[in-house]
Design brief:
Length: 196
């Protein structure tokens, strides 16, 4: 059974990472990420945490253990304030399930990462497809420039320009991906149309 932690209960609870989730937490936050959190700044990182739902178990009337939701760039358990977030409390999870859910959350983020050679294509796609108001709210800019991305990633401006020349185009929301038809399918379709 799961329930949202009430505002009243949040005030009376201390929070920590669940002991069975701690290795997943430590592993995630030890990784080198494509975007440097110091260059992104606290305003951007805090903004990315808005709306994040955290999963936890309540160990006692005064203690809560997070096991999911911490897989956000820039998250710190020492600075985590439950009153700013939605926390779902699970009452009947086995320790093994808690550990599995913690690692699943970590892998979900890590395995969804952008390939390094596609950073420039990602920048272009963001500028083309993300509303300017969203870019302004998240990054305090209306357009992600190559200079901005070079400051926040391990890629130089020259490296991004080189990627720009090589990058494959990411389809925009208005451009549906075209389906390729094999020669076999073309012949089969042609035979069917000739038979009818």
């Amino acid at each position: 059974m799961a329930r949202f932690l009430s505002v009243r209960n949040k005030k009376n609870l201390s929070v920590d990472v669940h002991p069975r989730a701690y290795e997943a937490y430590r592993f995630f936050h030890a990784q080198m990420f494509l975007f440097h959190k110091t260059e992104l700044g606290t305003q951007v990182l805090d903004g990315l945490q808005k709306g994040q739902i955290f999963s936890a178990v309540q160990a006692s009337s005064s203690k809560c253990y997070l096991f999911s939701g911490f897989e956000i760039h820039g998250f710190s358990i020492n600075e985590f304030d439950m009153s700013d977030h939605q926390v779902v409390i699970y009452d009947d999870l086995a320790e093994e399930d808690i550990e599995l859910l913690a690692w699943t959350g970590v892998f979900r983020v890590l395995l969804s990462s952008v390939q390094g050679g596609r950073v420039e294509a990602l920048r272009k796609a963001i500028n083309e497809q993300v509303p300017k108001s969203v870019l302004n709210s998240v990054f305090s800019v209306k357009t992600l420039t190559q200079d901005f991305v070079a400051k926040c990633t391990p890629y130089s401006l020259a490296g991004l320009k080189k990627q720009s020349k090589k990058s494959a185009i990411i389809p925009t929301a208005s451009e549906p991906e075209t389906k390729t038809v094999s020669i076999f399918e073309q012949l089969t379709n042609e035979v069917r149309s000739n038979e009818s």
